[in-house]
Design goal:
10 strands, 32% helix, disordered N terminus
């Protein structure tokens, strides 16, 4: 089957996975939000969004992870469209199509990435501009991960994830393998399981990593403070990490976000591709993807 070409008026965007290479939980505010210090990259897999003109606001969802997604009006993409249209003082009218390839409740910010891409895509579709600060304010109303997904590049996130600064320069060809054992994880549940909520920050980050091995060495001194709590909730995460660690080409493995997705770091995208094929063959029930990072 061949795919149909996009209409001339249609706009297509990718919403890449958000991967926490390191995630330190540094405290909890009085309002309940946790503070963090995280090194974030994007890549390895993505959802695809298409935006078309319409006389109404409508969302259609396809793809391997479409079934578990909230439909209108609670879907984060629809909420993003309505918030943006309200700020622009225009009707919220667009046909939104989502190919859902990122697993849900998986620690890779799929919903946040889709919301961020919706804001960017509709600004282009509606031919409107907005100040960056205002756009980030709208994004934050949708979730603490959405502002960083607007950036879509390596960054350091602090505060509740809303204070962002440019991250280090990464090796051009570094590769990631992402694995999810198809076990959804509730982020609030994992935070409740944390035995310690006040931990050290990451400290200084080098301005650049000249090789994937240099990045792996630095990451080995960092943490994901949610990893042990997530393993208690879903022991299969430890199995995933072991499978990645046992691959001879994997330089480093860790869980992303609150899980259950784990990443493996590789010298190159080609090394990541070969590893992903091996791991998908030996674990056919797992979701396995690979790619570069930004």
């Amino acid at each position: 089957m061949t795919s149909q070409p996009l209409k001339e008026t249609a706009l297509s965007l990718k919403a890449p996975a958000k991967v926490n290479l390191a995630l330190h939980i540094t405290g909890q505010r009085e309002d309940g939000f946790h503070t963090l210090d995280s090194l974030v990259v994007f890549g390895g897999a993505f959802d695809r969004l298409v935006f078309e003109p319409s006389d109404r606001l409508h969302l259609s969802v396809t793809g391997p992870f479409a079934d578990g997604l909230r439909q209108e009006p609670d879907n984060l993409m629809v909420r993003a469209a309505r918030l943006l249209a309200k700020d622009l003082n225009i009707p919220a009218k667009a046909e939104l199509s989502l190919e859902k390839h990122l697993p849900i409740s998986a620690g890779v910010g799929g919903g946040s990435a889709d919301a961020a891409a919706t804001l960017l895509g509709l600004l282009r579709l509606w031919e409107r501009t907005i100040k960056d600060e205002k756009l980030r304010t709208i994004a934050l109303k949708l979730g603490s991960d959405v502002p960083m997904c607007l950036e879509g590049a390596c960054l350091r996130a602090t505060g509740i994830g809303d204070t962002l600064e440019e991250g280090p320069r990464l090796p051009k060809d570094v590769g990631l393998v992402l694995i999810n054992p198809r076990v959804p994880i509730s982020t609030p549940t994992i935070f409740k399981k944390l035995k310690r909520k006040t931990n050290d920050s990451m400290g200084p980050i080098p301005s650049a990593f000249l090789s994937a091995m240099a990045l792996a060495d630095w990451l080995s001194d960092q943490r994901n403070d949610l990893q042990m709590a997530a393993i208690e909730q879903a022991p299969v995460i430890e199995t995933v990490l072991q499978a990645l660690g046992d691959d001879g080409d994997c330089l480093f493995a860790r869980m992303s976000g609150s899980g259950a997705t784990c990443f493996g770091l590789f010298q190159s995208i080609k090394h990541a591709e070969y590893a992903a094929r091996r791991l998908a063959f030996t674990h056919p029930n797992w979701w396995v993807s690979y790619g570069g990072v930004s």
